[in-house]
Design goal:
single chain; 303 residues; alpha/beta; 13 helices
Length: 303
Amino acid sequence: MRFLPRLVVAAALGIATFLSWRLLLWSPATGQGGDLSPKAEEGFTLTLDTFLHVQQLRKKRLRAFCSRAGKVTTLPKSWEERARLLSSLRVSTKLDLLYCQVPSTGVEEWQQLLEKLEEKENMTLPVLVPYPRQHALETQLSEFNLTAIEAMLGSYTKVLFVRDPFQRLISTFMQGMGSSPSFSSFVQDVLDSGQHKASVTSKPLVSLCRPCLVQYDYVVMFGFLRQELGHLLRRTGLPVDSLLPEFTDTQVRLTYSWLSEQMFSELSLQQKQQLSHFYRWDLSAFPFSSSFLSDLLTTSETW
């Protein structure tokens, strides 16, 4: 009986997904925060100009966030400290790509795509790096020495996948990552663990991906993966139109907008406020203006 609430929510999620896939999906307009509005008609095509404009807005917001004090902006000399800071960063030395691996952000489909690309013998890109190249399958950035890491950070295409932190929490709970019988108790477990001891599935993106240390070239929002990644990969010179997987994040994003309201109502006011504080840096660094947690932030917490 302990998992009955989760089964009920899963059933509701399935019904909502079935009902919502026909609804309007996109809007060509961009919001003030640099996100794309989920109001457009089905079949909307994201133009390259709009994609590049949105990327500029997202990176401008990131730069403003990182200009404040207290952010890690330089690589530490200690190997142990670098390994800790860069533990979520992955690289493809064959494709000259670097990305942050955070579950439930769309990175899983991205990794499947990279695997297909790495299998192609003629997919090596000629980026000059000041060390002997040894092509290997996708691996952790922290496994390389300081010189190689600095070269990769300076020359590789760097991609960051982001998603509303509250929806990340819901996804983690729905997938059964934890033994909590209810969403409220699951959230309390996350809060009790604190940011430093939280698992990768619930830790803030800023703490995992270090966007003030790594100057990401592209910030890709969950809900817009297929069109954004199509533009991104074509700009890197990769012929991937026939390789892009079937992303389901569009339907999931719409469904979670409904589900978030239901799950949010299960939490106490104290839990809501604590969650907003827990994810305050993510809410400030990225355009999550529609997140249920955003309205609870104070001006002082934003930075």
